[in-house]
Each structure stands twice: as C-alpha cells, then as structure tokens.
C-alpha cells in the first residue's frame, strides 16, 4: 500500500479525518501564521492594555497578557517550538524503542537478556523526577537536546512491545524461508519485519508525540526550563501565579494557552485512534 492509499484510508475514517484536520490546523498556526501576525514585542508597558478580554481587533482577538501583549501572538509564536520539540522527541523515542526491540527480539540470547534488563530498570525509574533533574542540570532551550532528554525515559514500553512483535514474526514461515534462502539478517529485518510493523509503529509514534507534548509543557509550567513568554506552559504558569484560577483579570491568559494544549492533544489522540482502527483488524468496522 502506497502513501496515497494510506492517506485515503485515514481520510475515510471519521476519527482520523478530524484528528488530521486539527493537526494540519496547528501546523498552519505554527509555520504560516507568523508570516501574517506581528510578534508580541512590548517596548513599553501600557497599563490600559494589560489583561484585556477578547477584542474585535483581530490581533487582540484573544485578549492581552500581563505586559499588554497579544495572547494570539503568544500562542502563534509558541506553537512552532512546541510542535518541533514534540515531533523530535516522538521521533527519537520511536527510533530508540524500535532499535532496542528489534535487536532484542531478533538476536535473542544474552543480547536480549541484557537489553531487556536495561529496559526494565529504566522503566521502573520515576520518569517525571528524572526529567526534572536532567532539565535542571542542562537548562537549555535547544529543541534537539530537549527532545533527547524527553526520549531518554520514554522508549521502554515501545521496545518491549516491538520485541514481542518480532518474536511473533520470527516464527512465521516466510521468515524461515528467507533464512533458508540465505538472506542476510539486515535484509530480513528491513525488508520483511519492519514493513509488517509499519502501522504499529505509526500509532506508537503519535502516542510518543503526545507524551512529549505533555512533558514539555509540564516542564515549562513547573518553571524548570528557561523562561519563554511564548511557551504555552510558561503562560499557564504565569497566569496561575497571578491568580487567574480564581477568576482574576488574567483568566484569558490561562484559558487560551490551556485550550491550545488541549486542542492539539485532542487532534493527536483522534488521529492515533483512527489509525489504530484502520490497521487493527479487531477494531476495523
């Protein structure tokens, strides 16, 4: 099945179609809107513009923040970093999980025992605490380094799942025939095993992106990573510190970044559930 046919299946499924539309909207928000919306730069604080409710003016349609800046501009200019970091972390997590799972499942023996022992040790560690310690030590805003940080603890579940799938595939007749024909291990892994794990990997990649999104917003919310006034987690943190949870004047500064996170998560969840329904015979309608 080529990519176009796979996209048609995604579009036919209601859940994946809605999820795909939401994700595409966020991509447009992150990478196209900045060409049309000025950045939220404040040269001087105007007390009359602080914490305004949503306005008819498009630039201030979501209201203003604690410096009188546009909340819409904050969300738009914060979206790119959030999405880039989440995608990179999801990619790194998926690649590590696939690599460990395939090596452990296909080679087996002492290699399998060593890798699964490491896997189980990492799995038992408190993920959030480790992230907080590493983020405190590193203190960087580089998305690649942060993505590696977020993927350092998240690959274990996928690795064990992929290992189980590989052990199942190894017993299939076509794999035995490939071995009898003298095909190399690399040929069997990349041409016979991985293609059969494609849909399974795709679903887990989206789940890993969701987890990275939660973790990155959470670390900024906790104030562990360097302050970024456009980051959605940082905005939520500032709004709560200003009493927005009690209905103060900064309530819109809390509501809209929270909705931005929820909306992106909702789109990713629908997309993953839809793909799962398409590729899983037990769920396929």
Explain what this protein looks like in three dimensions:
The chain is built from twelve helices and no strands. Helix 2 (14-31) crosses helix 12 (251-279), helix 3 packs antiparallel against helix 4 (109-124) and helix 3 (71-107) runs parallel beside helix 7 (156-170). It has helices spanning 3-12, 14-31, 71-107, 109-124, 127-138, 143-151, 156-170, 173-180, 185-193, 198-221, 232-241, 251-279. Helices cover 69% and strands 0% of the residues. It is an all-alpha fold.
Mean pLDDT: 87
Encode the helix/strand succession as letters: HHHHHHHHHHHH
Helix proportion of residues, in percent?
A: 55-70%
Structural class from helices and strands?
A: mainly alpha
Tags for this entry?
elongated; mainly alpha; 0% strand; 12 helices
